[in-house]
Amino acid sequence: MKIYEERIAPNARRVRMFMAEKGCLDDVEWVQLDLKSGENITPEFKRKNPLAKVPVLELDDGTCVSESVAICRYFEALHPESSLMGEEPLEQAQIEMWQRRCEIYFMNLVGMGFQHTSGYFADRMTPVKEWGEICVKSAAKFLKLLEARLAESEFVAGEKFSIADITALVTIDFAKVIRLRLDDSMPNINRWYAQMNERPSAQA
């Protein structure tokens, strides 16, 4: 198996951290792509993922799976012990709910803020600075929701570490590129963030 990624890309980090928690980082060959130079938009790579995004998991028979949560779900099924997506129906639903909240209302907005205010991919998209600035402000609002959530819960989705924590942690770190950082007004996030960074998988 191979995973095509760029290590600094936040979605790639999500998959690596998930697999580190599962103890299966060495189950795949990691193939690095340079997104800035466009190695992900070549015809060859687009045959693996027509959306030209990383990461992409390529199985030994040539089957490709893209989208980071889909890749994580594949390895969750292979290694169901120490579940990161929940075991009982209600737990699965709550983790899915918070994972999607962190992804849709936080990670995606940080990504759009970066793409539209930095001009990093201006050679292949049309940045709209005003839209990027709106996304940054909306991402900042989500931190208030997350602060309130972590005031009542040890982890993002409940009392167990899960994929929702991975998404939130990766996004907080990535948000530094748009100058969105934690401060003293977020004691609960800061408590959780320090706890997350003590996990070996945070360095994967």
What this model shows, in words?
The protein is α+β, with helices and mostly antiparallel strands and 204 residues long. It has two domains: 2-78, Glutaredoxin, CATH 3.40.30; 89-203, Glutathione S-transferase Yfyf (Class Pi), Chain A, domain 2 (Up-down Bundle). The chain contains seven helices and four strands; from the N terminus they run βαβαββααααα. It has helices spanning 10-22, 43-46, 68-78, 89-118, 129-150, 163-174, 187-197, and strands at 2-5, 29-32, 56-58, 64-66. Strands 2-1-3-4 form a four-stranded mixed sheet, covered by helices on one side. Helix 1 (10-22) runs parallel beside helix 3, helix 1 (10-22) packs antiparallel against helix 6 (163-174) and helix 4 packs antiparallel against helix 5. It is globular, with a radius of gyration of 17 Å. 36% of the residues are buried.
Keywords:
alpha+beta, Glutaredoxin, 2 domains, 204 residues, Glutathione S-transferase Yfyf (Class Pi), Chain A, domain 2
